[in-house]
UniProtKB/TrEMBL annotation:
Taxonomic source organism: Zooxanthella nutricula
Listed transmembrane segments: 40-63
Keyword Phosphoprotein: no
Cell compartment(s), UniProt: Membrane
Keyword terms of this UniProt record: Membrane, Transmembrane, Transmembrane helix
Domain Amino acid transporter transmembrane residues, every copy: 5-78
Transmembrane helix is among the record's keywords: yes
Protein name in the entry: Amino acid transporter transmembrane domain-containing protein
Gene Ontology CC annotation, any one: membrane
Length: 101
């Protein structure tokens, strides 16, 4: 509970998770039936939560402790951490793709 070493990772996850909130106003403005906005929000967050849980549970069940905390560190490696044949190019892909624009 007091592991401050994980704070940068936690803050980046929280910052990323709230980026979609800036779209709530424009979505509401374009809705034909604004009284359904609350139901749409609940449905959207439920769908996102279900997707995150499904991906997380699948990853945990398949790889458990073999997964690095930074998922991009796992790209191009198998569950034992060995490089996947022919996949070395994947290790160079994340930095330019996920770098801030």
């Amino acid at each position: 509970l007091s592991d401050v070493g994980g704070m940068p990772v936690t803050l980046s996850i929280v910052a990323t998770s709230i980026t979609a909130h800036s779209e709530a106003g424009p979505v509401y403005a374009r809705m034909a039936s604004k009284e359904h906005f609350a139901k749409v929000c609940v449905g959207a967050f439920a769908a996102a939560t279900a997707l995150y849980l499904a991906v997380g549970a699948t990853g945990y069940l398949l790889y458990s402790d073999a997964v690095s905390a930074n998922l991009l560190d796992n790209v191009g490696f198998d569950a034992e951490g060995r490089p996947l044949p022919g996949m070395a190019w994947l290790q160079r892909l994340p930095p330019p793709v996920f770098a801030p624009q």
